[in-house]
Amino acid sequence: MRNVQYREALREAMQEEMRTDDRIFLMGEEVAEYNGAYKVSQGMVEEFGARRIIDSPISETGFAGLGVGAAMYGLRPIIEFMSWSFCLVAADQIINNAPKMLYMSGGQFGCPAVFRGNNGAGGQLGSTHSWCVESMFSSVPGLKLAVPSTPRDAKGMLKAAIRDEDPVFYLESERMLGMGARGDKDFSRYLANGKWAPPTFEEDDNFVIDFGKADIKKAGADCTIVTAGRPVHFALEAAEQLEKEGIDIEVIDVRTYRPLDIETIVNSVRKTNYCVVVDQSWPFASVASEIASQVYERCFDDLDNSIIRVNNDDVPAPYNRTMEQEMLPNARKIIEAVRNVTYNA
Amino acid sequence: MNEATLLLSKKSEKTFMSSAAQDKAQANQIAPELSNDKLIDMLKSMMQIRRFEERTMQSYMQQKIGGFCHIYIGQEAVAVGSISALKSDDPIVGAYRDHGFALARGMDPKYAMAEMFGKVTGCSKGKGGSMHFFDKEHHMYGGHAIVGGQCPLGTGLAFASQYEKKDNVTLCYLGDGAVNQGAFHEAMNLAAIWNLPIIFVLENNSYSMGTHINRGTAMANDLRAKAEAYGMRYAECDGLDVLDVYTTFKREVDKTRNAKNPQWERGMIPSYKREGEANGPCFMNVKTYRYKGHSMSDPQKYRAKEEVEAKQELDPINRLVNLLIEKNISTQDQIDEFDKAAKAEAQAAVKYANESPDMPQEELFTDIYVNPYGPYKKGELPEMLKGKDLGE
User: Fold this and answer.
1) What's the gap in Å between the CA of B283 and the closest CA on chain A?
2) Of A8, A129, A172, A250, which is the active-site residue?
3) Which residues, 6 or more positions from B243, have their beta carbon under 8 angstroms from its beta carbon?
4) A212-341, what's its fold?
5) What is the distance, to the nearest Å, from the Cα of residue A240 to the centroid of all Cα atoms in its chain?
6) Domain boundaries in chain B?
7) Is A139 an 8 Å CB contact of chain B?
8) Which pLDDT tens digits describe chain A residue by residue (345 residues)?
9) Which of B156, B216, B272, B330 is most buried, most CB within 10 Å of its CB?
10) Which residues of B touch A101 (CB under 8 A)?
11) Is A204 helix (H, G, I), strand (E, B) or coil?
12) Domain range annotation of chain A
């Protein structure tokens, strides 16, 4: 098995799809001559040329909207936001135009575009650059929203996103780009324990992870943790610690918030009878709130305690390094939540 | 004043006629490439829009139409003149005052009216309404209701045709209010740096809702500056004169058609001239006027009645009628017949809309995803497109 970094997995997904479909192009800030602000698109302009790998000016409304128009015409744009924090200035294009075009046109014009980029705290970037957009955007019908947590998922899900006929918001994480599928410290612990799902990396060009299918990243009997994206790793870290305390956690990576695989979550909660939802956006009206609500609706009689949500603290992201870590839904908070919810506090 | 311009009120049975006022209007040179048939087609198209819009207003007053409804009366020459200069597969996209360019592009009025009635037979199946007409068959990429929001979409259409190495030109219509939106400026910049085959068509009717352009737009007296700022070609024409619109567009569309992206060549650092590229995008200032309010709910307190009346003296339809009669291309009797046909068509559109079935409950959950999941379902194409070859 190759040790493929998360950023390389994203690149491979785009390269493989672009080789078979000329309608796909990549546009964004610094994607071509700079080789990608985060090296995701490194070397792609060499392979595909300046017609298909396009440096845009810093003009998110312009190039995000261009992507929507090009998709209406019949192309398959991949629009890279250097950070999802920067998409806010393009809100009209990405949440008004992209997801509603099909409906407003009575089914005539869809928007098969992928909008992708880094989501969440990068590392002491302060509040304007640390947005987690999943809670805001996953409430909009017409779009699909994916939050991949591993290199394998990043590749398989991005290929699915590119092939999808609908607009996909693809939320990556600057903090995960260097994460490897093997040998990386973030992954070594999964391999150390046979019970945990080992990371694999498919070599098949047609390996695609369909949307709306949650992945049980670690099976367990005592408590369900529902999460996605970078917090999956916080949850696994917590699970490792809790295992030492004799609490066997099931970590469900929902992978896509829209569509949401509520069935897998419900089946898990019916088994464990306890549930913690972990989400890196703010708590008020968050995806964690939504998932908790849906679990309550379906599993009220199965739950042996209230659901606890672990979110970012309800504050703007601070610059201070320690406080930034403190603000995130980190392992310490998850461990506390699990102890509380399972009456082990 | 000419009574023909009051057709929307009780006097709507008046015909379009030549008048002394119009005789004073600038005499038109008929463009050499315009056949008599094409001139007559342009007249019929403008009459179709005018009579359709009168019925739209009437239906709105009868509460058959809801929401915001923006009437195109007065601006007919802009849509008709510009679209007459296009190839049939050139994309167009615009703002919410979209009835005119939808009809001029070839949409059957009955589907347009049914849309405003919220009927499932409407062009957007009753999901879009007056501000969101779409017509895939006629390469009409929509009316868009957020001011300026269509400008990046227009660049996307132009980008896509250039990417596909097709020789299309995109017309992106916008009102003068959109010039102050960031989306407009970002779109202009992208069109310039990539030399996209697009014409930004400013339908400059002097008012963004009730705010006069000089009150809201810096340098409104010299809009060429907006184009120069992006090294883009600038042109202007009289939007109340369909022949001027047509000839100006014909010239500029031809120049725009083969716009090539210099940056396809790696390492190419573009340079710019204030006057733009001969084969590149264009910013077209079309000076027009709307005779009705911004929308149906506009009491028009911001402008004098005399101002409207003065512009009505220049009615674009009457001007073309005058010319056709003067040049013996048509007779008053023929023109009366065209008008009768336009009225009948508008009336038939209302009848069709009235008699069409309402948007059914199950349509609420269709057309949200092409690949649906959960509660969503795959939708069918609108009635208008059934059995049509959409080139897919």
Assistant:
1) 17
2) A129
3) B28, B29, B30, B31, B34, B81, B320, B323
4) Rossmann fold (3.40.50)
5) 22
6) 3-385
7) no
8) 567 889 999 999 999 999 999 999 999 999 999 999 999 999 999 999 999 999 999 999 999 999 999 999 999 999 999 999 999 999 999 999 999 999 999 999 999 999 999 999 888 999 999 999 999 999 999 999 999 998 889 999 999 999 999 999 999 999 999 887 654 444 444 544 444 444 566 677 788 999 999 999 999 999 999 999 999 999 999 998 999 999 999 999 999 999 999 999 999 999 999 999 999 999 999 999 999 999 999 999 999 999 999 999 999 999 999 999 999 999 999 999 999 999 998
9) B156
10) 142
11) coil
12) 6-176, 212-341
CA–CA min distance A92, chain B (Å) = 7
End-to-end CA distance of chain A: 41
Tokens of B265: 């060549």
Tokens linked to B188: 């202009």
Q: Does B152 touch chain A (CB under 8 A)?
A: yes
* Domain A6-176: top CATH class: alpha beta
Strands B282-287 and B233-238: parallel
pLDDT at res. A194: 40
Is A233 marked active-site?
no
Give contacts of B 182-241 with A, CB under 8 A: 182-183, 186-187, 189-190, 193
- pLDDT at site B17: 61
Domain spanning B3-385: CATH superfamily? Thiamin diphosphate (ThDP)-binding fold, Pyr/PP domains (3.40.50.970)
- Confidence class for position B28, pLDDT limits 50, 70, 90: very low
Residue B63 backbone class (left: φ over 0; alpha: ψ -120 to 50; beta: rest) = left
Of A50, A61, A67, the CB nearest to B182: A61
The average confidence (pLDDT) of chain B is 92
> Whose CA is closest to A278, among A317, A237, A235, A238?
A235
Report the distance separating Cα A92 and Cα A105, nearest Å: 17
Q: Does B374 touch chain A (CB under 8 A)?
A: yes
Q: Is pLDDT at B12 greater than 70 in this prediction?
A: no
- B369 and A212 within 8 Å at the Cβ level: the answer is no
3-state secondary structure chain B: CCHHHHCCCCCCCCCCCCCHHHHHCCCCCCCCCCCHHHHHHHHHHHHHHHHHHHHHHHHHHCCCCCCCCCCCCCCHHHHHHHHCCCCCCCCEEECCCCHHHHHHHCCCHHHHHHHHCCECCCCCCCCCCCCCCCECCCCEEEECCCCCCHHHHHHHHHHHHHHCCCCCCEEEEEEHHHHHCHHHHHHHHHHHHCCCCEEEEEEECCEECCEEHHHHCCCHHHCHHHHHCCCCEEEEEECCCHHHHHHHHHHHHHHHHCCCCHHHCCCCCCCCCCCCCCCCCEEEEEECCCCCCCCCCCCCCCCCHHHHHHHHCCCHHHHHHHHHHHCCCCCHHHHHHHHHHHHHHHHHHHHHHHHCCECCHHHHHECCCCCCCCCCECCCCCHHHCCCCCCC
Cβ-Cβ contacts under 8 Å for B230 (sequence gap 6 or more): B188, B189, B191, B192, B276, B283
Are A96 and B263 inside 8 Å of each other by CB? no
A334: three-class secondary structure by DSSP: helix
- Residues A188, A182 contacting (CB under 8 angstroms): no
Catalytic: which of A8, A29, A60, A290? A60
Q: Does A3 touch chain B (CB under 8 A)?
A: no
Of residues B78 and B23, more confidently modeled: B78
